[in-house]
Design the sequence.
């Protein structure tokens, strides 16, 4: 299903990186947050905004003195706050930590020179929560910005931020034989976000945030480790996973014994899977084969059919299932690909060598989904 697409925009960070996230609180601009990951050099966070009129990228570079940036999760209502895990290096040790960071008001709008850069500040340190466990990631609850999930080691922590600091609402353990820690987590956006999932090995375990109890469990029969998961934002019970076998798998968690479909288009580990927040026919996947894939899974979406333009009484497929476009802009492992929260037709991807690429859904696919072709 190859399609012509708009040229991608490429920006090279000064250092390698693996963390990328859309700034969800900025609903007016196509903006992303990107972090660098270097043991030897000072690290930075970039705020990258695409000017839709000119096609130019505007960058604000911020010092990140805490250490290597391992993950970023911007606050859903305040664009100046974000959760992050990071690697802190001292003379004789290295430790992974987690904190809430604040972006300062810009004092140096006219300069991105390293000597004049603003610095992000730690707003709330989360060491007391993680204890001796190594933090894996932290994710704000999408519909309640004062609450978040923090995963450390094999522990899932549900927390609320208050003026006095973070308060633990509950803690649960996700332990799988042969696994030393949880790989990642994700919020279920349905039912007022009352479920949050953790991934360990080939297992997804989901927790009811109201009680801390297990809600349901899903296992990949092949035993392949899951590296990423995402919920369909528009169709309840559906989610996608991706992992070490290079497969994108879509599930209905009410019937977890068999997947709805399995698509293997990556030749190496699949590190990132993301549904389009507006048009769930479209799914992004990215892997360590240096590729970003744009998939159509219209048959399993909330809108598999549309009214025919030629006959009002006829329903027709919006899109065929398959690969819409393969993007070959990267030369290193792509750990993250994310949709813009402001524009459903734009997404970003980041490879470990520090190459940030802004790409677009092909116009023909866009027009077909919008029923204006």
Sequence:
């Amino acid at each position: 299903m190859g399609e012509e697409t708009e040229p991608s925009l490429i920006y090279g960070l000064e250092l390698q990186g693996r963390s990328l996230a859309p700034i969800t609180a900025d609903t007016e601009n196509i903006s992303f947050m990107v972090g660098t990951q270097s043991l030897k050099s000072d690290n930075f966070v970039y705020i990258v905004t695409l000017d839709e009129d000119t096609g130019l990228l505007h960058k604000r570079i911020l010092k990140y003195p805490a250490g290597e940036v391992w993950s970023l999760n911007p606050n859903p209502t305040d664009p100046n706050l974000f959760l992050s895990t990071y690697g802190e290096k001292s003379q004789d040790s290295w430790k992974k930590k987690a904190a809430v960071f604040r972006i300062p008001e810009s004092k140096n709008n006219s300069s991105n020179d390293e000597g004049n850069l603003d610095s992000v500040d730690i707003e709330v340190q989360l060491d007391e929560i993680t204890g001796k466990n190594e933090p894996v990631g932290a994710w704000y609850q999408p519909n309640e910005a004062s609450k978040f999930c923090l995963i450390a080691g094999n522990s899932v922590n549900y927390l609320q931020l208050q003026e006095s600091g973070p308060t633990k609402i509950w803690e649960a353990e996700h332990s799988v034989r042969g696994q030393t820690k949880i790989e990642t987590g994700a919020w279920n956006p349905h039912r007022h976000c009352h479920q949050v999932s953790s991934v360990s090995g080939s297992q997804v375990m989901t927790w009811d945030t109201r009680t801390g109890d297990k809600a349901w469990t899903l296992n990949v029969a092949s035993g392949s480790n899951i590296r990423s998961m995402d919920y369909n934002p528009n169709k309840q019970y559906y989610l996608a996973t991706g992992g070490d076998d290079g497969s994108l798998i879509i599930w209905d968690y009410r019937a977890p014994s068999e997947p709805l479909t399995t698509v293997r288009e990556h030749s190496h580990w699949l590190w990132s899977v993301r549904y389009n927040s507006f048009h769930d026919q479209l799914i992004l996947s990215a892997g360590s084969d240096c590729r970003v894939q744009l998939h159509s899974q219209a048959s399993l979406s909330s809108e598999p059919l549309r009214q025919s333009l030629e006959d009002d009484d006829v329903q027709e497929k919006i899109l065929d299932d398959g690969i819409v476009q393969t993007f070959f802009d990267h030369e290193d492992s792509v750990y993250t690909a994310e949709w813009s929260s402001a524009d459903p037709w734009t997404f970003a991807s980041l490879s470990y060598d520090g190459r940030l690429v802004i790409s677009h859904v092909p116009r023909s696919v866009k027009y077909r989904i919008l029923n204006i072709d």
User: Anything to note?
Assistant: Residues 363-369 form the longest helix (7 residues). The radius of gyration is 20 Å. The mean pLDDT is 92. The longest strand covers residues 81-89.
